[in-house]
Amino acid sequence: MALIVQKYGGTSVGSPERMKNVVRRVAKFKALGHQIVVVVSAMSGETNRLIGLAKEMQAQPDPRELDMVISTGEQVTIGLVSMGLMQEGLKAKSYTGAQVKIITDSAFTKARILSIDEQNIRADLANGYVVVVAGFQGIDSKGNITTLGRGGSDTTGVAIAAALHADECQIYTDVDGVYTTDPRLVPEARRLKTITFEEMLEMASLGSKVLQIRAVEFAGKYRVKLRVLSSFDEEGDGTLITFEENDKMEQAIISGIAFNRDEAKITVRGVPDKPGIAYQILGSISEANIDVDMIIQNVGVDGTTDFSFTVHRNEFDKAMDILKNQVQSHIGARDVVGDNKTAKVSVVGVGMRSHVGIASKMFRTLAEEGINIQMISTSEIKISVVIHEKYLELAVRVLHKAFDLDQEPA
Amino acid sequence: MALIVQKYGGTSVGSPERMKNVVRRVAKFKALGHQIVVVVSAMSGETNRLIGLAKEMQAQPDPRELDMVISTGEQVTIGLVSMGLMQEGLKAKSYTGAQVKIITDSAFTKARILSIDEQNIRADLANGYVVVVAGFQGIDSKGNITTLGRGGSDTTGVAIAAALHADECQIYTDVDGVYTTDPRLVPEARRLKTITFEEMLEMASLGSKVLQIRAVEFAGKYRVKLRVLSSFDEEGDGTLITFEENDKMEQAIISGIAFNRDEAKITVRGVPDKPGIAYQILGSISEANIDVDMIIQNVGVDGTTDFSFTVHRNEFDKAMDILKNQVQSHIGARDVVGDNKTAKVSVVGVGMRSHVGIASKMFRTLAEEGINIQMISTSEIKISVVIHEKYLELAVRVLHKAFDLDQEPA
Fold first, then answer.
1. Where do the structural domains in chain B lie, given as residue ranges?
2. ipTM value > 0.90
3. Nearest-angstrom CA–CA distance, B151 and B136
4. Which residue among B65, B75, B94 sits closest to A79, beta carbon to beta carbon?
5. CATH topology of domain B3-174
6. Residue from B86, B166, B167 nearest B132 by CA
7. Model pTM greater than 0.80?
8. Which of A120, A263, A376, B380 would suit a FRET pair with B171, their CA atoms being 20 to 30 Å apart?
9. Residue B272, class by beta-carbon neighbours within 10 Å (0-12 exposed, 13-18 middle, 19+ buried)?
10. Residue pair A197/A243 in contact by the 8 Å Cβ criterion
């Protein structure tokens, strides 16, 4: 008997019919003697519908009130799924984030989980209940309803699995696992049976939208065994995210090609090359709650340097505005330039640690197609480049082929 | 400066446009220097949409889970209305029933308010906020979300007005006040400028769907000044529900004709005429949470009596089933008969206390139209009769005319 947390996304609970599929799957696991906690998202389309209503009322919806409104999406789903479970003869009980209590900070629309009180859930499980928890939401110390931001339901699932020391956290989604790259772009892409936690982190952060990065980080921190599966496929084992590299050593050097279409790059030029400058530039960006992805600073020339970073394309204008009007003159930079017609492509794999030549192979492959590399950033297990967005698909395809990702590893 | 609680029903907040009307009205009162608490229902149609989803998942939706689902309707509205108020430059803050805290018992789908903690609301009002509270919902002592039953938002409004000792509780609805009878049935029906609390109680309980009876009871208990107004009419003063009869004494004997189309009558025949029988019959009905309206027991003959009562038409089958299968043989009754093709018509007025002949005038008027009276029940300020439902409209029209309700009182 295992304790399993199953998280189902918006498309998996998109209609009463689909919720009944979820119910049948839960019933199957329950019949095997497992204890099950189900974490669900809002029905697909519901969150956007609610945001639409909010924008009709207020041009820039107040974050606290927006969370009040959109958190209802998951609350509806938990009630409906619990009813479905009861209809199948199971005992079921739903909890909102506030009821669990999932305590978060007060950063409305992008709150972070601070603690989870798992007492009630544990008691219900012991009494034979399937416990159904609303993903994506929590409550702050003052009792305000908060949400964790888009994709936050994954984080809820992992956090609850961590709090309960669950045997496995299963993330059901509309894809049947993690692929070597997006199969819509490269039909030859293969599903990975396992991927290491670090690789998954890179794949997730780089735009493989299978799992939210915060969920993967959370899983890593609390060593939650995470499995990505399709809610539409009864048989598949999905992709297991492992913490050991051992069984990977025989496998390919590279696990996959990740990419992100929504990357915009910004360069602050002619920055005085002295301590504290990076903080002065990024501090103001971070205070505006803009997430920064790649950060690059090259060695300076003539006492000045260029400082580049990338942000989500939606936040490009806001970031440019802050830098030009608040930061540039303050730090004595020469210029701020940006480009939101960029994309990021990365090769990811723990295997590259012990292999030289990955970077040169990547750069040569792109050069052979005439693709100019605008920025480069590397870590121990990935190499990322920023290129013009028009080359994105081509770059992913040629890299996937160059690293033999369409072949099963020997 | 007054403290005013304004309650807006589902049609008043049925769309973003209508919510903006509510916002404008609130802003107008705020500009006059008043402190405002707004209590809102779910957008019209929303509760039924959610119940529909629930029934797709479970034939008889679990009450706890149903409350979980339908309470989201008001939660969406409070967020949206608060956003609208902010868009107009006002300070606004929303509260769910749980956040207020509106503590109820645990009778899901028909919970009763036990207490209200008005501290946070009071503090927000003092700080210049318009406070927007979700009607219809609360939380029980274990933290489960409860709802107060259909129309419960009125009760929330009055309960909050009572807790805050508000100067007035304004109930905005789609009619502009309380009428002598339903104007859809009798075009000559007049709006009453005032009505006594007791009359309102009878009018509400008898099916004038303007205000929920529990709200009126609550208002009476805590002496909350209640006013019914139209949310679509900028000018009208609506109908004020008063606690004094003095200014009524010059007015008509009868205030209005109330009626209820959804009445079903049940008679338990040949019941042994001994103590405890009424309890044995109604106890089982009440345990099944079926509300009983009229109850009549005539003097017995030959040691047995007939015991009649009325229930809502929707609960007729359930009540008949309980009586036939659980009660009849147990108490030694001869038979249980019922009829769900009945309706109730009542004349209501505090004036009848000091006037004889109201009953005979009522009965004569009905007799002249050939309408058979099946049951009669009276109180100090009303006389109710049960008739065949096909005569309902006719009965209301002729009684309205017979008591000169189409004329302004002298």
1. 3-174
2. no
3. 7
4. B65
5. Carbamate kinase (3.40.1160)
6. B86
7. no
8. B380
9. middle
10. yes
